[in-house]
Specification:
This protein has 114 residues and is mainly β. It has strands spanning 37-41, 59-67, 74-81, 84-88, 95-97, 107-109. It has a 5-stranded mixed barrel.
Length: 114
């Protein structure tokens, strides 16, 4: 006499999709303030006749030193270049906030989240 075969349980072809994680709360947009760390986009040195540059435009570490009370997107900066710090005070024009996605020389933006 043969033993009865164990009952087979059907296995689903695909596992059920996990529930979506809730959206994290959105951080409020940061406001420029003296002492905040930002990134400054340098202009780079002028192009040479062969098309190269001694220093190409690059993102540099900077600190906000002044905020224009009439235009909070315009700030004074202390920029930390590889060859030494450079000041861009409001009296000299300062630096303006870069539009999202733009990286024009002379503008600043908040550091990217890593």
């Amino acid at each position: 006499m043969s033993e009865p075969s164990p009952e087979r349980v059907p296995v689903p072809a695909t596992a059920p999709a996990p529930e979506a994680a809730p959206e994290p709360p959105r951080r409020p947009d940061p406001q420029p303030a003296i002492g905040r760390d930002v990134h400054y986009v340098s202009h780079g040195t002028p192009l040479r006749s062969d098309g190269s540059q001694e220093y190409p435009a690059a993102c540099r570490s900077a600190k906000i030193t002044e905020v224009d009370p009439n235009d909070p997107g315009r700030v004074g900066l202390m920029v930390f270049n590889p060859n030494g710090p450079t000041s861009y005070p409001l009296a000299g024009g300062g630096s303006v906030y870069a539009i999202t996605g733009a990286s024009l020389g002379g503008t600043w933006h908040w550091p990217e989240w890593i």
